[in-house]
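To assess whether the prediction recovers the assembly geometry, we first specified each molecular entity separately, as shown.
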Amino acid sequence: QLQLQESGPGLVKPSETLSLTCTVSGDSISSSNYYWGWIRQPPGKGLEWIGSIYYGGSTHYIPSLKSRVTISVDTSKNQFSLKVNSVTAADTAVYYCARHRWCSSSTFCLRDFQYWGQGTLVTVSS
Amino acid sequence: DIVMTQSPDSLAVSLGERATINCKSNQSVLYSSNNANYLAWYQQKPGQPPELLIYWASTRESGVPDRFSGSGSGTDFTLTISSLQAEDVAVYYCQQYYSSPLTFGGGTKVEIK
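The predicted structure of the complete assembly is given in tokenized form:
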């Protein structure tokens, strides 16, 4: 049974960097044909995809955040991470990590989100 | 970006009655080479992460009750709960994965009348 667990500080100061890690258990993050993603949800609002990564390093980001976001993978720890620079109150949200459905395409390969972590609330405040 | 618009924002349905949620995209999410609609539906209960219900617009995820069904093609899609149960109270989201950036609809809140 695949499980994902987000971890990281629950409070970040404005202008600083938000850093979260997603630890994967029940499967290898190096499994072929799976992308791993981050999605966030401001309190009381809807879902926003942030970006996704393949274990080999290929990444996709939402353009509106691309200049501030980095997603990376650590196969030795079976983890992937999210960093958001220069945060403001607008970055306050529950952050979810998730795994996309298996994809065999050689081109665009982001699918639906089949497995989700429980989410972690990050508040940006001084 | 593909914009996903859901309607209604909320609806109240009696137990055992049908609930219908609509999702419209501003461009087609039907991929002609494989005739597949790149559209998923999720259910999110309070305090929980979203849970995948439907993918490829009409394929139920394993373990999802058959009272949930998805239909539609191109730009217009529907999630139907054929007989609403108390445990179906939640917010429902559609999501397109036809192109990046992946985008979600704004959500539809389903309550008991």
